[in-house]
Amino acid sequence: MVSFDVIAEAGETRRGQLQINDRTLETPHLFPVVNFYGGGNEPALFGGGIHRTVKEFMVNHPPTTGGTDYSDLFGGVMTSISSLTDYGIREKKLEEYLDNEIREWGKFSDYDGMIFADSGGYKILKQGGELEGEDFTKDITQDKALDMQLDLGPDIVVNLDHPIHPDDEFEERIEKMEKTAVNARQLAKRRDEVDGACYLTVHGYYEAMLERSFDAIENELDKPIPEVFDGIALGSLVPRKDNVEVLIEAVSDCRLEMQQRGYNDLPLHVFGISGNAMPLLVAVGADTFDSASYLHQAINGKYCVNLFETVPVEEADFHACDCRICNDGLHRDRMRNRLDDLYQKDILGSVAAHNLAIQQRELRRFRQLIAEADEDQIAAYLEEAVKDQKGFRKFAYKLINERIKPYFDDDGETSYA
Amino acid sequence: MNESSHTSTTMERQAMHKTPKVNEVNEFIEIASDFEDPLEVIREALSNSYDAEATWVEIEIKQDDEGRNTLIIEDDGHGMDEQDLESFFDLGNSNKHDAIGYKGHGTKIYYKSDEIRVESVKDGNHVESVMEQPWETLNNHELPTYSVDTEETDETSGTRIEVHGFRAGQGFDPEQLTYNKIEHYIKWKTIGGSTAWHFDDDFHEFDIEVTLSPQIDNTRKPIETTNKLEFPDENLHPDGEFVAERMCKHFPPRELTVTLDDGRELTIEVVGMVGGKEARNELPTYGKHSAQFGIWLAKDHIKVERYNDAIGADNEFFHFFFVANCQSLELSANREKIRNKSGDVYQAITNELERFMTKVCQEEWYRDYIARRKLEDKKRSVQSQESSLQDRLVKTKEQGGLSPSNPAEVIAALERYSANGSPETVEIADFRMDEEVNAIVNTDDGYKNAALQAKLSDFFEDETPLTHIDRFICWKVGDRDALTKIERASYLGDPIRFDFSNNEVTYGEEDKKTIPVLELVDKM
Ligand SMILES: [Zn+2]
């Protein structure tokens, strides 16, 4: 059973509840990317390093968390079948991983969040349509991808897509869109095997392109999209993630396209984007995101001060942060490297949890504001969020003016104070 | 500082306290000379009258036939008593608080004169005061004195100041001082150009009148204005094809508040307009307009310096006229510059202003206006294309068809020549406009390096070496006289011959080479 209910709207911003079987997720929401299989064994939560520490936070492993439950940071997580082979495993190991669904592994049995199983289209396409391990390569087709996704025991699956690239020639792009559409049809055929939500990937940077992407899929399907799919996932934005104007246009146009085609009730997921662009994309109608940036930042020793700025963890002022990680002496000591026998994963794992907490906190604030459906407050929130970010500022103000509420009344009269 | 360093040096020290001396005469001379621009007299006069809560001020500047200047400043302010006169004449002794005049230095400008005469009525008392030869006395290293006569009166309050034989800076050169210039100055640099009325409900309005004697400027009527700077009328969506120049929008007054790290709060009062050239020209500007537009920082609602960085690089400053007032700005003595630029106050003000201006630039009307301008520019260029095309058509018709004026058109002529059955094959194989030998042609004898020119004579004007040229292709030979002149003189140091009957050029002394010339004009 899948449902998505919009419970409040302000401008194009919306707050919703995504219900999949007995799990509920408040949107807008960020799915942190988690690699469940780090190349090791189950007792070590499949491999070491910071990935393991993150999973220990996720399942509340007291020696790591200090006893506080941080699992709410992981209310939904994103994982990809392509990450199964991130550590160059042997085929036997892969089969072992796929033998049990994630929640059937003892360590993850208490994990109660949603698992979004990505097909890993981007990475697989880059590897020539193959998944590579130490002693094997597997051609990945839509059917094989879905088999593997289902083996993980997911709440959400998505079709294997062929992401486009800004430099693609027109013909190349069409070809990719058509291949993606064929995969969507194939997933649609097996819809009944999925005990959860099926998302459909679409691609494009602006309306005409998205129109083409939707058309290609509709041409392949013999049923209307909302009868087969429970959500739309917008892909191919990662190569343009630093151009917020492009991101806003893409997400906004995708919503417009969904509206015009009558899919407005479907949730819109944005692949691979988080952090600074998130508030602006929520403002134009994005419902969920996924990103590994919290982790990558931590691996590079970067501590998030807010959505926009990071500082080297050694320079961070933990007392200026109101998150639970920074309010806990144990994690402060770890992040400061003040304890004996600390591994990098202990230091950076706490940093990653903090980084994620910052992003989740912003979305939580945003959710509260949308619930009040107060456009003034939403505009003020966006303004406050970007006020010191010159690059973002102008897009934010443009968006506020056009989509939420103009700063200067344009009634032809100027009322002086 | 530690204990030991404190005690060890006190042993034989003899305390000596000296007060730095001030040479009062020099001080007066310095301050009076600080005011270089004679217009600053007007600023001082307006500020003083405004501070005296006058409802009108009249300034008269006269010049007699000998070139001596007299200033008369009269207002209906609350007047001066004996004590006020002291601060009028004294140095650094202003009793003005929270006023625009700076430390009472302003009135010292009047010392550069032959006589200062002040008459004032305050609270039923009439004072009259005269200072004779202030400038001469100061330059004789003496402090000038002034007389004071007081008597009771039933006149209403007000002040009249006469300054005779005034000289300021380069003097009141009649050539330099005009009504237009003064009006501009009043509106841009004095209380006369205040934007305070946008923010203040109890705004104190006063009338300003400036009269120049006809010797100084007789081109127009005296200036009559107020202490309000007003924007041109709004014209949000004018009709017509080319209207961007007329478009104009007011951005209503906003109070922006910034909290500094130490908890202090700053208020910035911003008001402004955006508009096209025609709209902006309605502002009281004179002289170089580009120096007036943009984003002004102001104190006492009087503009001080521009901070056009607030608009950002993708917007052009001249569309904007905004005044951002903040009382936390500190000014230099002559009000020309902001003194506290290095501090966090200035930083906070400019940051907030940048944020505000981003909002203006992202406002829908503004973006429409910019889009409209762009569109109209394009339309204009289409129109000018059209007229230039018409000119070309007329010319072409006059010439009766193709008449190449550049190498590309020569190629077209060559194509036509080949198509009409030329006796030999000459096809362009490669063409590069900007190269000296600009073409490679495919001929019956294989590839040849060719120089293509509308006129052969043009080629020789440029003194291009002939070393790598196998063929000349031209529309016309051109100026035969010019070629003959070259023939007679030699070309790049070597003999050259133009043989027009055989269509060839021979060049060189020992390694003589012959270059065929293909002239197209008569072969078509
Ligand atoms: Zn924190």
From TrEMBL, chain A:
Keyword tags: Glycosyltransferase, Transferase, tRNA processing
Highest taxon of source: Archaea
Keyword tRNA processing set for record: yes
Gene Ontology CC: cytoplasm
Biological process annotations from GO: tRNA wobble guanine modification
Listed EC numbers: 2.4.2.-
Pfam families named among the record's database cross-references: TGT
GO terms, molecular function: glycosyltransferase activity
InterPro entries (UniProt xref): ArchSynthase1/Queuine_TRR, TGT-like_sf, tRNA_ribo_trans-like
Residue ranges occupied by any tRNA-guanine(15) transglycosylase-like domain in the UniProt entry: 101-384
UniProt cross-references to PANTHER family, sorted A to Z: QUEUINE TRNA-RIBOSYLTRANSFERASE
Protein name in the entry: tRNA-guanine transglycosylase
Source organism: Natrinema halophilum
Lineage, opening ranks: Archaea, Methanobacteriati, Methanobacteriota, Stenosarchaea group, Halobacteria
TrEMBL record, chain B:
Gene Ontology MF: a single term: ATP binding
Region (Disordered): 1-21, 381-405
Alphabetic keyword roster: ATP-binding, Nucleotide-binding
Domain of life of the source: Archaea
Record's compositionally biased regions (Polar residues): 1-12
InterPro entries: HATPase_C_sf
Protein name: ATP-binding protein
Species the sequence originates in: Natrinema halophilum
